[in-house]
Design goal:
mainly alpha, 3 helices, 76% helix, rod-shaped
C-alpha cells in the first residue's frame, strides 16, 4: 500500500499549477492577438463602408447644389421637389401675394412739405 504524505501532495499540486500557468500565458496572448485581429478587420470594414456612403452623399449633395443653382423659378423648384420626393405638393397653398396699402398713399398726400 502506498501512502502519500502531505508534502508530496503539495509539491505535485504546486508543480501542476506552475505548468498550467506557464501554458496559459502564451495561450492568453494568442487569443488576445486573434481577438484584436478580428476586431480590427470589422472596424476596417465599417470604416470603408462609411467612407463609401460619405462619398455617395457628397456626390448627391453636389448634384443637389447644382440643381438648385440652375432652378430659379418656383415651378422649376417645385419640379425638383417632386422629382426628389416623388410627391405632389399641395397646390396653391404657398403663394406670395404683394398688397399695396391704400393708407400709405393717403398719408403721403395729407402731409405736404
Amino acid at each position: 500500500m502506498m501512502f502519500f504524505n502531505q508534502e508530496s501532495i503539495m509539491e505535485t499540486t504546486t508543480s501542476i499549477l506552475k505548468c498550467m500557468f506557464i501554458v496559459s500565458i502564451p495561450a492568453l496572448f494568442f487569443f488576445f492577438y486573434v481577438w484584436q485581429s478580428i476586431t480590427y478587420a470589422h472596424l476596417n470594414k465599417k470604416i470603408n463602408k462609411l467612407a463609401k456612403k460619405k462619398e455617395e452623399l457628397m456626390k448627391k449633395n453636389d448634384k443637389l447644389k447644382v440643381d438648385i443653382a440652375s432652378y430659379t423659378s418656383a415651378e422649376r423648384i417645385e419640379s425638383l421637389y417632386i422629382k426628389l420626393n416623388r410627391e405632389i405638393p399641395m397646390a396653391n397653398s404657398n403663394k406670395i401675394i404683394t398688397l399695396t396699402l391704400p393708407y400709405a398713399k393717403k398719408i403721403k398726400r395729407d402731409n405736404p412739405k
